[in-house]
């Protein structure tokens, strides 16, 4: 939950998660630092006090997504520039396919803030935009209600996968590549921008939308750690070439 302002919503979100079997709640820059102990949050958690009390608080969305390998940004608004869009049911199926304990993959669902929803900067940190196909004449959902819908779809998809044996590794074939964490991807993007400036492909005085487009390009591909390492090697070579050219 990004920048939650109402303690009751945080408590309701904890309850929504626990009813569907989830327990890891992360709060990004909540308006009240003591939100998990606020009486409204405790009252509306109603039996999910353990999830509420264990909620992790982060200063930034980047910090919250540091170990995430697939992030969905829940929003009702379309974006001119952003990651691919899907509905909440498709998101649950994609999450199910992405999760692999052996590969260390992690999926995050990003919601909030209550007043205006996710900003373009928040969405840019996600791999997919996710929406709930509600009544087009009145599609506004309370953030905790949206989390309940999302948690149900995820539970349904994961239960279906478990019943069909999708989640059980069979031990055959090549091991799945290790997905790059959010922190690894952010570090690569910073390195990539530095390299693009060095080879004069990116003009920092007039960047236009080059880096946001690059960010969305790499987000769509679902980079593995091996691919990030390879691309950072390319960045290092680009920087070395640019420096050699200037010295020569």
UniProtKB/TrEMBL annotation:
<dbReference type="InterPro" id="IPR004384">
    <property type="entry name" value="RNA_MeTrfase_TrmJ/LasT"/>
</dbReference>
<keyword id="KW-0808">Transferase</keyword>
<keyword id="KW-0489">Methyltransferase</keyword>
<dbReference type="GO" id="GO:0008173">
    <property type="term" value="F:RNA methyltransferase activity"/>
</dbReference>
<dbReference type="GO" id="GO:0002128">
    <property type="term" value="P:tRNA nucleoside ribose methylation"/>
</dbReference>
<dbReference type="InterPro" id="IPR029026">
    <property type="entry name" value="tRNA_m1G_MTases_N"/>
</dbReference>
<dbReference type="GO" id="GO:0005829">
    <property type="term" value="C:cytosol"/>
</dbReference>
<dbReference type="InterPro" id="IPR001537">
    <property type="entry name" value="SpoU_MeTrfase"/>
</dbReference>
<keyword id="KW-0949">S-adenosyl-L-methionine</keyword>
<dbReference type="GO" id="GO:0003723">
    <property type="term" value="F:RNA binding"/>
</dbReference>
<dbReference type="Pfam" id="PF00588">
    <property type="entry name" value="SpoU_methylase"/>
</dbReference>
<feature type="domain" description="tRNA/rRNA methyltransferase SpoU type">
    <location>
        <begin position="2"/>
        <end position="151"/>
    </location>
</feature>
<dbReference type="InterPro" id="IPR029028">
    <property type="entry name" value="Alpha/beta_knot_MTases"/>
</dbReference>
<comment type="similarity">
    <text>Belongs to the class IV-like SAM-binding methyltransferase superfamily. RNA methyltransferase TrmH family.</text>
</comment>
<protein>
    <submittedName>
        <fullName>RNA methyltransferase</fullName>
    </submittedName>
</protein>
